[in-house]
Specification:
Rudment_hybrid_motif; alpha+beta; 8-stranded antiparallel beta sheet; metal ion binding; ligase; Dna Ligase, domain 1; Acetyl-CoA carboxylase biotin carboxylase subunit; transit peptide
Length: about 675
């Protein structure tokens, strides 16, 4: 019987597991790195233990340290969450040797599915359909290219030990194969310590549909229906839903049966997900789906299954790990309604989805209800660092129908207010609202195909946001003047002699967005603050409330937004989007903005993994220059125009800070 549980993970999944464990009356034990000393999961657990420095290899991947903590804390069981050690057979064995229950499948089952090539061979033997491809041991680059030629382009290069889209590349043309192979191998080596790959035929109009399975130690196996995870970017899931739109009953039955057979074939136990690729070029059909891989752990997207079945999968995991029977039989499990999940990332879609790091100056999420669930691992004030995955929360919505759940999701996203880092909230709203998505007609190429619509060109802040920003700044200065603590000692608003009682006063407030500067005239009257912009008028009596939200009447309509003040900047958050405006610093007379000119800089701290250019090279716009590994992903920095390289300031293996100059170009005018 399990009475105490160590959670060998961090972030939202650690918080998620702790919630269920506590509901079951278990004592919870958290572990953390130095970077996570003040993290939410540390605060939630009954006790917490330091593992080591921030890098995962020195903390969350240290099996010896985690087992030492398990012994010291007298933990009965270890839940690995997802990622890190969750699919590490050696760790499962080590837990057994230490007399601690591993909340997951047997080590042999992890090994059987851990390598995609052997897993596919097993599935073929079990009668489960697999995608045509090369799954052999020969890893010679020329040989693999030859196999790709025989399979026929487009093909997928996939890490043998991969998962989560890492070490995976789609190749449409033979001329691009070598470069994609090298990149996939580097990413696979960094993520899994194994750079072997396999080659698969890329299925036309592919839909990623996976089936949740569960097995106990008494020979029982059930499935909890499917999830559609077709909306992906760089093979990483962005939006998931259950059930899959357009799924015929006979195909659902066939996939469920195949998934259960896959689990039985390897003597599975616990929660697992069997992933299939479905050819949707002629609609979903029961004879056109193929096994891709099995994830021998709880999935990030498990909440959508919980929402439509009413079951707590972590509860199931803990009961099965404790030797109990599965809570339900197959015929007792049904589908109720429809659910979506979106992954809220700290990243900037307008800058090729580069991860965004920094302190969460504001972190507002929608309130939970029967239709809205929020899984988050961070709080306002937490730091989004370079060390871990940039996912900061998951939003999950439910409705009687797909359209109901989709509307709930749009409403939930509109309530997201984040400042301090960029997020993909607006991008997610574009996905949810796109006609193709609304019709359920998307496949795994959806984002690439509609990227221009989903990530529209960067536009200036809307007029109402400028007006709200100006009013918030004015209110802040007025409040400061009333307490005599304004930062500008020369402002007339610091005059507390009562001169405003004689009439209206005016001030110009400058809001700088990127390279554009807007000047708004603000008037202070007996009734409050007034301003106007582009023919639109705004007024406010008590502009900012106690929750930090600015309220104003704009053209007669009441509008509110979240605001966050920082040094010489203000962020306005509205409808899921945020805009940060710099405020002129009267003491800053240097005007030094030379850093961004004449070259390419590191967008964030990371490690250089590839350099494609040298001094003297001429490059075309979009040509790859340098590959940077950061936040568990490899990012390619490309040429911003047709230019000549004058210097390269970084080499493979260098650890560079964000903002560091990497490549310098000759001045085209010289």
């Amino acid at each position: 019987m399990i009475t105490s549980l160590l959670i060998a993970n961090r972030g939202e999944i650690a918080c998620r597991v702790i919630e269920t464990a506590r509901a079951m009356g278990l004592r919870t034990i958290a572990v953390y790195s130095e970077a996570d000393a003040g993290a939410r999961h540390v605060e939630m657990a009954d006790e917490a233990h330091l593992l080591g420095p921030a890098p995962a290899a020195e903390s969350y991947l240290r099996m010896d340290r985690i087992l030492d903590v398990a012994r010291a804390s007298r933990a009965d069981a270890i839940h690995p969450g997802y990622g890190f050690l969750s699919e590490n057979a050696e760790f499962a064995d080590a837990c057994a040797d230490a007399g601690v229950v591993f909340v997951g499948p047997p080590a042999d089952a992890i090994r059987a599915m851990g390598l995609k090539d052997t897993a596919k061979a097993l599935m073929e033997k079990a009668g489960v359909p697999v995608v045509p491809g090369y799954h052999g041991d020969n890893q010679d680059a020329a040989y693999l290219a030859g196999e790709a030629d025989q399979i026929g382009y487009p093909v997928l290069i996939k890490a043998v030990a991969g998962g989560g889209g890492k070490g995976m590349r789609r190749v449409d043309d033979a001329a691009d194969f070598d470069k994609a192979l090298q990149s996939a191998r580097r990413e696979a080596k960094a993520a899994f310590g194994d750079d072997r790959v396999l080659i698969e035929k890329f299925v036309a109009s592919p839909r990623h549909i996976e089936v949740q399975v569960f097995a106990d130690a008494h020979g029982n196996v059930v499935h909890l229906f499917e999830r559609d995870c077709s909306v992906q970017r760089r093979h990483q899931k962005v939006v998931e839903e259950a059930p899959a739109p357009g799924m015929p009953d006979d195909m659902r039955a066939a996939m469920g049966h195949a998934a259960c057979e896959a689990a039985r074939a390897i003597g599975y136990r616990g929660a697992g997900t069997v992933e299939f690729i479905a050819d949707a070029s002629d609609g979903l059909r029961s004879d056109r789906f193929y096994f891709m891989e099995m994830n021998t752990r709880l999935q990030v997207e498990h909440p959508v299954t919980e929402m439509i079945t009413g079951q707590d999968l972590v509860d199931w995991q803990l009961r099965v790990a404790g030797g109990e029977l599965l809570p339900l039989k197959q015929d007792d499990i049904g589908i109720n309604g429809h659910a979506f999940e979106v992954r809220l990332y700290a990243e900037d879609p307008a800058k090729s989805f580069f991860p965004s790091t920094g302190r969460l100056a504001a972190f507002g999420l929608p309130p939970e209800s029967n239709a809205v669930r929020v899984d988050a691992g961070v709080r306002e004030g937490d730091e989004i660092s370079i060390y871990y995955d940039p996912m900061i929360a998951k939003l999950v919505t439910w409705g009687d129908t797909r359209d109901d759940a989709r509307r709930q999701m749009d409403a939930a996203l509109r309530q997201v207010e984040v400042a301090g880092v960029r997020t993909n909230t607006s991008f997610l709203r574009q996905v949810i609202g796109h006609d193709v998505f609304a019709a359920g007609a998307m496949d795994t190429g959806f984002i690439d195909e509609h990227l221009d619509a989903l990530v529209p060109a960067v536009a200036g802040a809307p007029d109402e946001v400028l007006l709200l920003g100006a009013i918030a700044v004015a209110q802040s200065r007025l409040a400061a003047s009333q307490t005599g603590s304004a930062s500008d000692p020369y402002s007339p608003w610091n005059d507390v002699s009562g001169w405003r009682l004689s009439g209206t006063a005016e001030e110009t407030i400058i809001l700088i967005e990127g390279e554009e500067s807007r000047e708004l005239c603000v008037r202070y009257t007996q009734d409050g603050i007034e301003t106007s912009w582009s023919g639109r008028a705004a007024s406010a009596a008590a502009a900012v409330d106690g929750a930090g939200r600015v309220h104003a009447l704009i053209d007669g309509h009441g509008i509110a937004a979240g605001v966050v003040h920082a040094s010489n900047a203000i962020t306005v958050m509205r409808e899921g989007e945020s805009w940060t405006f710099a405020l002129p610093d009267p003491l800053d007379v240097t005007g030094d903005d030379a850093a961004a000119s004449g070259g390419v800089t590191a967008p964030m701290t990371g490690k250089i993994t590839q350099v494609w250019v040298k001094a003297g090279d001429s490059v075309s716009r979009g040509a790859p220059l340098i590959a940077l590994e950061a936040m568990k992903m490899e990012h390619t920095l490309s040429a911003p125009g047709d230019l000549k390289v004058s210097d390269v300031l970084a080499a493979v293996g260098d650890q560079v800070e964000g903002g560091a100059a990497l490549v310098v170009f000759e001045d085209p005018a010289s």
